[in-house]
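Q: Sequence in, structure out?
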Amino acid sequence: MAWYLKLAIAVPSLLVIYAIPVVIIRFVLLRKAKTFGEVRSQGLIYYILQFCVQCPAIEELIFRAPLIVAFDDFTTSTWVCIAVSSLLFGSLHLANTNLRTMIKLASERSEDEKRRQMLDNTTPSEADEFIKRELAEEKVRNPEPLAVKIASTISPTLMGFLVSYLGIKYQSVFVAFGIHSAWNFLLLPLLYLVGIIRDTFKEVFHIPRF
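A: Exactly. Output:
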């Protein structure tokens, strides 16, 4: 398939996929939710829409679609571009400090019933501001070690390499998006099973970011 046809398919498709959860979250779920407690009770829905649909769509548009459009076979240049794209994708996850800190805070404070009731009875925007302040304070008190940040890039870098390879092999952004989405979806039961978010995942994935 010519590069311009692949481009014409990839960009609009991924933008539409990205827009669907944004519309559902902003204009359906959040519009109905009056309190943070109502939002938190639907934490799994938010997780799926954000981390299994919205994030993979925009990340595939940025990191894998250009590779799929540019290459249709595996040459030295292809492998170099795959490696660079995967490293850039992995380094992007250095910025996930908020998520890792939120998991830590939620785990530490999961038994704080007073805090939970206070949050549950506030509006989603008020809860969001409160948790942002908690995150900022925690990052000042306990900055994340560089080793932890670097380690957190290994998994997404490997995933980026795999998705790039399969996307180019099958010449499809939908293959890349599907694998990325499934990868993110499987993270939830994995984290649950190892106990990292067993009691707190609804709080961790509480407020949508755009």
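Residues 93 and 201 are 19 Å apart (CA to CA).
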